[in-house]
Amino acid sequence: MDANPPVANVEEPASWDELYNINLIPSELFVKFRKEYEGFRLGVNLEFYNSPINDFQTKLVLKPLSNERRWKFIYEPIHQDVRVLSKKIPITKFLNLQVGIGHNFSLGAIGWKWKLTSCLGGDNISRIRNKTSLGLCEGVDFRFGWRADYVLPEITGALGTGEPLFNMNSGRLEASLDRVEAIFTHGNEQYP
């Protein structure tokens, strides 16, 4: 019989400051001006990027307003890009596909892209990405793009294996406010 029983590796519990991190400084700020007319929406987007480098983009966007909208047209004058994108096509409840074709005037190149997106998933951890809208008044909306990366708490235990009888991993939460959008919409005008 072994006189020295195995000693369990007991880690110091992490402090609360190490278990969560919430960043409320957005890395993207968008100001969007929209005009709705005759079933279409024309928009001018001013996009300011703060991280990883400071950048600025301008986009002109045209898309139909109907619920069956299947496309949108985007022109970026600074990069001289023109794109036509499909709307996000649901593949499953949490998975979407978007395809597009574009032309870059400065490079003289035509190409197409596709993007598979989900509000769930991340790099070896669970992630939720979402947008929350807040209507301030008619024609003025704010949209917040946020993300939450989390590891759920875990309770384990063992008996007769040299591992602790009871062990708890407290989990972890990292949340951030990634994007703030101010959207100004001028309504639909009907002329006789």
* Element-by-element helix/strand order: HEEEEEEEEEEEEEE
Largest sheet: 12 strands, mixed
Count the helices. How many?
Answer: 1
Total of domains = 1
Number of strands: 14
Oligomer: single chain
Morphology? elongated
How is the topology of this model organized?
Layout: H1 16-19, E1 20-23, E2 28-37, E3 40-49, E4 55-64, E5 71-76, E6 81-86, E7 89-90, E8 95-104, E9 109-118, E10 126-137, E11 140-151, E12 154-156, E13 167-169, E14 172-186
Describe, in plain words, how this protein is organized in 3D.
The strands form two sheets. Strands 1, 2, 3, 4, 5, 6, 7, 8, 9, 10, 11 and 14 form a twelve-stranded mixed sheet that branches. Strands 12-13 form a two-stranded antiparallel ribbon. The protein is an all-beta fold and 192 residues long. It starts with 15 loop residues before the first helix and ends in a 6-residue tail after the last strand. The protein has one domain (19-186). A hairpin with a 4-residue loop joins β8 (95-104) and β9 (109-118). The protein has one helix at 16-19, and strands spanning 20-23, 28-37, 40-49, 55-64, 71-76, 81-86, 89-90, 95-104, 109-118, 126-137, 140-151, 154-156, 167-169, 172-186. The protein has one helix and 14 strands; from the N terminus they run αββββββββββββββ. The protein is elongated and about 70 Å long. The longest helix is centred in the N-terminal third of the chain and has 4 residues, at 16-19. Helices cover 2% and strands 59% of the residues. It comes from Chenopodium quinoa. Residues 15-186 form the DUF7781 domain.
